Amino acid sequence: MIEFQQVSKHFGDTTAVDGIDLHIGKGEFVVLIGPSGSGKSTTLRMMNRLIDCDAGRIVFQGQDLQTLPPQALRLRMGYAIQSVGLFPHWTVEKNIGTVPRLLGWPAERVHARVQALLTLLQLEPSQFAKRFPDELSGGQQQRVGVARALAGEPEILLMDEPFGALDPVTRIVLQRELKRIHQLSGTTVVMVTHDIDEALFLASRIVLFQDGHIVQDGAPLELLARPANDFVSDFLGRAE
Ligand code: ADP
Ligand code: MG
């Protein structure tokens, strides 16, 4: 699905990502985890060209990412972030339908897709479709953000700490929903978090970052059974 080959990114004197190799296969749920400032968000943003790498190569579905126009690329990739960023003057329905409309889907198909996603995320359509973002709780806004990211049937779903700002109970509910959606749809998911419990619950594979490097990449049980070094075991040690 997506492959990083010796990819680096610098911001002035800061090396945010330092020569990483990363291969993400179709249908995987990959969690990028690590301390603050270790390069997780930069790595994710390079996938949809919000940032371009300055060394190495990224290949998406067999094509060099640099040859794909960012606007077209973003219609093929869902993106959800902690701050959600819903359009405040648009209803929930209009927000979720953004990408399908840009893709030129007929109105009835957009409508049906929005209804299906609201139901999937346990927001009763008759109750929520016509509301505006400021008429929703934080957890409900986050659900709408995830629904919007999924709406265009993306080839890959990218999420950057999507549940970071939520209370623990809502967070667990949304983690369960996300896991169910992944199991149902088989969509490839790449998610950034610094919450090790979230990573262990959701990931088919965990990629652990430290100072712009990948220190370990493997299935959750593999990391727990054979941490690559003290940094990994200390990090995993925070799991409850
Ligand atoms: P993480 O998501 O793991 O917390 P980031 O990828 O956001 O880390 O950041 C990695 C490093 O790159 C940090 O040192 C951060 O300060 C720096 N960085 C990230 N984005 C920018 C930017 N737009 N301008 C300057 N420095 C940045
Ligand atoms: Mg980040």
Automatic annotation (TrEMBL):
The lineage of its organism: Bacteria, Pseudomonadati, Pseudomonadota, Betaproteobacteria, Burkholderiales. This is ABC transporter ATP-binding protein. Keywords: ATP-binding, CBS domain, Cell membrane, Membrane, Nucleotide-binding, Transport. It comes from the Bacteria. Residues 2-236 form the ABC transporter domain. One of its GO terms (biological process) is quaternary ammonium group transport. Belongs to the ABC transporter superfamily. GO terms for molecular function: ATP binding; ATP hydrolysis activity.
